[in-house]
Protein 1
Amino acid sequence: MIAKDISTSVKKKDHDGKISGQLAYISDVKVDSMLYGVLYRSPIAYGKVRSIRLPPLPEGYEKIGAEHIPGNNFVKLLHNDQPIFANEWVNYIGEPMFMLVGPKLDILYQLVDEVEVDFEEHPAIFTLEEAIKQKDQTGVFAYHEFGESLDVIKSIEKKAHRVIEEVYETGYQEHVYLEPQGMLGIYKADEILVKGSMQCLYYVKNALISALACEDDEVRVIQSPTGGGFGGKEDFPSMMACHVAIAAKVVKKPVMLLFDRAEDMEVTTKRHPAKFTYRTAIDEQGNILSMNVEVFLDGGANAGLSPVVLQRALLNSSGVYKIPHFHAKGYALKTNTVPNGAFRGFGAPQSFAAIESHLGHISSMLKRDPIQYKRNYLVKQGDPTITNGRFRDPILLEDMIQDLLQTADYTKKKEAFRAFNQQNKRFKKGIGASLFLHGCGFTGSGERDHIKAVVKLEKTEQDQVLIKVSNSDMGQGALTTLSKIVAKGLDLPYEDILFPDPDTKDVPDSGPTVASRTTMIVGKLLERAASQLKAGWQSGVAQEVVEHYIHEDMIPWDEETFSGDAYPAYSWGVNLIEVEVDILTGSVRIERVYGSFDIGRAIDERIVKGQIDGGMAQGIAYGFMEKMTSQLGKIQQKTISDYGPPTAMDLVPIESKLYDNPYAGGPYGAKGAGELPLTGGAPAVQAAIEDALQIPFYQIPVTPELIIESLTKKDGDARD
Amino acid sequence: MISNGKSKTVIELHVNGDSHEVMVRSGDTLLDILREQLGLSGAKRSCENGDCGACTVLADGKPIHSCLSLAIESCDQSLMTIEGLMGSPIQQAFVDNWAIQCGFCTPGFILNCHALATEHPNASDEVIEEWMCSNLCRCTGYQEIKEAVQSVVRASGNA
């Protein structure tokens, strides 16, 4: 089928294997003489290892530890602080210290249980609060400060009618990809092959080269079908890959490392808990005069990706608004807790929850409608960003808001809800909105300076075209969307485009599958490659074309001064959510959900709808359902039901709408769509609950417990 | 079949129309045996706690979580895994409604929904939602899956 319109949906490339159960995920793979690995993990949060005593190991069982690492004993993301096997100091409960390998899993678990380690324990930092208190002495992974000078802000605040200061906190979020992490290392005489569930093949490969101290052609990485990622398989798999690769090299046999759910929940990366302080000066009419923001992220025990997550959190700390005299600073801090990492949205969901909450609270203090109040400050095309970049492309936000208010009959509904709430003693209805954006692609100059993406198209003598890129399909549909882009460029049926499982032996480094960059950046390169191949097409001849990333002309990004264009393009969203709150139980029922999005042009409408529906579900649940906590460095939720992601009963159909706003830098006009839909869910659901109860909240998730507590406090205050 | 957790017993399992003799310990779950001994890896290991339904198989036509079922309890039942369900209307409906993203929950969801459509050919939306709650999907937000089930139920309801 030759598609006329790129947005028209096609059958996804991987459906058949998925409905028949035939598609083999890594845990379905069995290889001859395969051994399993089980990690021994630190039981303490911070301390020095004095001695390790192993039980007698039966024949065929071995300990693999730091002593077997030929190269560096760390996985480098940004700092060299993430040991593959922590052999001197441990920094969090669950940190891998060594691995036992052998043929039987139950025996391995028993052996690991019998290990005795003696530690010299040291006082640990368990909470973000403690980390903030001692940040001037130690534990800062990253710090940035930018914007208007504090002197100017102080003088504005002095003359202001009012200065409103609020503290806002967000919690952990767990990915709950249905497929737990898994990795297989295979020993071959001339190479170590690693296969597994992952988003970033070359992150894994580079980690292996560093750990094994080997040449480029001595390691090979193949992505297995990946059962969900959401960022959870961005940074984390590199560590597991090192574990199985080192073990396979020592025992000269295949070694499989599979996490069960409890282990996956306890030790893998999560969304950073965050704390914000917003300080906003307003005049007598309620106009914003200045805003001063402080952001603290709990990085966990090592830096990981926290410095970049902090950048995105800061870049979004003013929301979609043009705020006069804006200043922000932020820290990513170390705690002796499980390291936090990438999660769909990458720092932005925290910031949007905070800014939307803050402006919502200011508007209710002023007795103004929150949407109308926020509309006064929307950024427009040509406006500077808070880092003195530019919003260069058309912004449809105003139209999107106007349409949605009409579609949802906002004003009438708000009145109807008020009347309902006066009548009804137990159930209260509310409606809330969120306005948000997503900077597409890597932050700053990452694409140009670090990634330097390369894509390849191969044509066989039979005129079949194969896509050779290092990007993973983890369910989001990359196999299909990228194939459509190539098919359209070549005027070929989509079915004629082949997309084998990415294998570093075979594909160039087109970058990681993260940051809503795959369709926009890699897709654009493939669009160019397709047109190059078409121009030189010789039927019956094997051909190959390669394309390299070209950086768009923008205001240069300077990480030191935190200035310039942080992103080449922005996607936009407006959410509106209606809820009913039971004030007897504190439970919240979602009644209607609207989502309007500008993602440039949809490469496949149904795939985009899937991203919207699933992303909004995660975002909404982040706002009121999903709660994960850590006590003395230990994650408290060990099962999925302890944690509580949504089931089919918690959600309603999402009424979504796309706005066509083609972006010249993306393939056929596409911008990023993967992360955006998650971002607006939490602030909209919080706003809706606040509207129903007429009380402000200063944290997410807004759980039933928090609602009851706040209602009780409100009652108490009213009586005082 | 009295045994402690470690001694093994031979039992017969009836899966997808075939009978298999397998050696099991009393503590082995049905999921373990299907995946490790019979090579039927369509039943997925995800939560092993009954939360997610990725391991769903049918026992005498009813969906069960095979991670919570003991293999020795399953010998008198007629079992069906995703490998035994070919070309069903519900599988096609999942494709037609884009009800699949990462695919890890898909086999379990399909079996559950197949049983639902068989048992309740005229299921209301409430019944559909209630059945769907025994399985988790983290990618789709459930809407597409629900539409897939509705399309099958409507078609069979009209027939």
Protein 2
Amino acid sequence: MGYYLEFEKPIEELELKIEELKRLSDGKDIDITAEIKRLEKKAKDLRSDIFNNLSRWQKTQLARHPDRPYTLDYISMIAEDFVELHGDRMFADDPAIVGGLGKINGTSVMLIGHQKGRGVKERIKRNFGQPHPEGYRKALRLMKLAEKFKKIIVTFIDTPGAYPGIGAEERGQAEAIARNLMEMSRLRTPIISIVIGEGGSGGAIAIGVADRLYMLEHSVYSVISPEGCASILWRKNGDLKTEDFSRAADALKLTAQDLLGFKVIHDIIPEPLGGAHRDPEGAAKNIKDTISKAIEELKTKMPGKLIEERYRRLRKIGAFLNGTQT
Amino acid sequence: MAWFKRTKDHGLKTVKIPEGLWVKCDSCKEIIYKKEIDRNLKVCPKCNYHFRINANERVKLLADEGTFTEINPDITSADPLQFKDSMSYAERLKDNQKKSGLKEAVISGKAKINGHDVVLVIMDFAFMGGSMGSAVGEKIVRAAELALEEKIPLIAVSSSGGARMQEGIYSLMQMAKVSAAIGKLKDAAVPYISVISDPTFGGVTASFAMLGDIIIAEPRSLIGFAGPRVIEQTIKQQLPDNFQRAEFLLEHGLIDMIVERKDMKATLAKLIEHLKGA
């Protein structure tokens, strides 16, 4: 039945029990359907109870759930005729970022996203979704292609962060991210971004400067991971514990609900009960509905107006005092 | 992210010039008469090590005397997350203001460089590691907007551990905000020169610092995206000797040049003349 997080354990127990009962009743004439029904209802109530009261740290874990759908999963569920495009034309093809053309409701769009791997081998191939500079440069190349052919850009954000390595520094990780931020702010085509899992700092925002920014219900987006934050604040006190990560997550206010409150994102895309991994098709449908709506809103905007509004939106973000004024 | 820390493998420790008459150079360990270092623009006369200097010293170094007029001096950080660790963020800000004599990690203003009008932006590492939160982002954007309006070059001297953790997503968004503002300068062909000093990392390198039309670094400055400690922990290997030094960046084609402190002003003036002149 897949992977269960610590706080999902009570659900797992119930579901195992239901499975067992179903197996017992199979082919026999003892009638326990009523009992199964009762337990199924109980499991559902329990799940909704747990999922309506998730802590920020639990949401962080859910955002990283190994069964959670990744960019290519969503692309295959929402787009037709997807053609993947590779390479930055300079150094390499980074498997941690994927991109290509696909159709959503008959309209060709450029789809780009971080890609994590499933299973040890693919995870390593995808570098756990941590891009190198060539990943960001590939993304920018595809975005410029979209601009040239007047295609709307849709990006999926799901990364622990840009990769911290020697090669990445040698090839200008910071430059690649900075360039994307600047170029995306002035691309003359609509950009829609969705955080589908982990929005890990600079490595995430490097494909996330958009006209419409959404987050899945159980995704997170932050300047630093709770572990990184806890390490800076409390490492000197000795080994870090789960409570420290939990405290850091609360301090960082990194959930979709927090960011909607800060007006940093436009909206939250609901996930099926129990999280996107419980019903990928359901999650994909909600994503597709949101993208379709955004496309309708953006497709007729003149490029000049579009980038002016994009700039004004970014320009407004910030909480500062000016003398006594806020 | 204020995570950046030097490790002893990289040779240098944080520079604090004590009140005494004599100073030990952090690089060559020579004991040097303090006044001699001060006379030498805080550069070690023995090994040419560039000590960190504060924002006001940097202004003196670059602007023609008496020409610097500060803009937006009263912009300070709010505390949108009500962030608290051992100390609340609000207290930490006060503490840093007292310690550094600055209101925020950046000062900005109009100035003249050898007679050329410019907008100057100067970060100070002494204020919360030069980290970029909403106030820093706003001040940089306003400086860029002023440069755009008056069509005069923007010069930004960075020195920062990166985006400021205590403002969470707001700090991250400043990266996009300042980069977008720099984009406007490019469209209007207003020159933007980025001067990177020791140390510059994270969200500052990954936004305006690497977006200069021309990028200059001070000798041996540590410049990068990820901090060396994080990289070492990730790859579990010793890092090469001059890793993330200005010389390493020059070798890899990431910056235009390395300029010594004593030549910085003249170099900037020359570049401005080239870019603005016929």
Protein 3
Amino acid sequence: MTSHFLYSLVTGIFVGGIAGYLGTLMLLKKMTVAVDPLSHFVLPGVGLAVLMSFDPSLGAFASILLGVVAVWILETKTKLPTETLIAVLFTAGVAIALLIAPSGSLEEIFTGDILLIGPWSAGIAAAASLLIFFVLQKIYSKIILMEISEDLAKMEGVNTKKYLLVYLIALALVVALEVKLVGGLMTAALVAVPAVTARLLSRNLRQYAVLGIVFGIVFSVAGILLSQAISQPAGILITLTAVTVFMVVFLLKSLALRKS
Amino acid sequence: MSPTILEIKNLTVELDKEKIIDNFSFSVQQGDIVAILGPNGAGKTVLLRTLLGLMPFSGQVSWLKPLRKGYVPQRLPLVKGIPITVAEFFKLKGIKNYQESEESVLRSVGLEKGILKRPMNLLTPGQYQRTLMAWQLMSNPEVVFFDEPMEGIDVSGQQSIYRLLEKIHLEKNLTIFLVSHDLSVVYQFASKVICLSRNLVCAGMPKEALTAEMLGQLYGGETKFYQHHHD
């Protein structure tokens, strides 16, 4: 039990941090359209993995890679209404997952199971998180510039299609890593909530990115500790911790603004 | 006469299978201030983006030597979602083309150094527009494209930005493309004018190209007024 706890804690620290960091890019308006279909597109993959008893992260990564390619093509090649597609992908993802998942395994698919994390997967999660961190750090300012204006980015010689693809693949990897921690249904919790919380508190880009990482780590570690204490799935507790902290920060900030 | 830097021949640009610019030819000399004039939806921005290589086209757009270009897009929405300071915004440009200090560029657009620490979302529209200009001037461009630089700026702010443009133009022998629908601006600043409207293109020196008849055609209703007047 203690070693399992340690593995899940290591996974939580690294995956929480990288998810928070990625989330600070994802909050930007153009990218948010990609989050939803992607995070829900992991479900059939996870379902299949549970059914055939291989690593859920692998299943998640495989199916989300499909989603990434779909979104990338849509973003760069067509003018289809993205919202419509989100709805289609989301419902398709959930339906397929429900269809193929063995009975009794739904909770595992939706909320994750940190007890599945062994030394190997903790090590891989840590290594992958570091790798993604270095890649994201390299493309971070380019993505921000693309967000401010795609024309300006192009004028500066930024290959916007390439960066979008790199970014989406990083997103696929992070969501796949998250699946064990929070399950397939709540991946947005560790990506979006640290970033929105960080945004409330930061005045510049640097603070925003650092706080995103810090909140990602804090939320996942707090969730894992709570899960040990009250024996509930870590995924649920990570999500609830994240949302609670966000709401508290939001309220405090609103109060502070009203006073000033 | 200054050397020709841009040669446009038989330029045609289509957007959703509709011809926005049809068989247009024009040339630009170094140091020209080219005003692009026309009512909303006439394709002014399309022409600008085409010249910048941001849009597909047929025909010929040849820059006669490689030039550093700067672009201040129209109504670039205030950066609201991203907590980013002016200094950080400048950093996004990358250091490669960095030729002048931030301070001197800021001074040339009439901003104080202190603005570097301010978040972009707290800038006034005027400060924001000047910041965008400074961002472009940072890499010491030889040609600058402004798409309606005065949108959302009050009249006194507009005057000082135009004075600023003139100053930079003189100091650096910049070539400037300026999209506008403000006629007085064209007469005041431009050495050349391109007017765009559906199925109508005029081009040349402002005083010659912008005849009353041409203006009437360009802005609709007035045509009748002039014809009526002559009867």
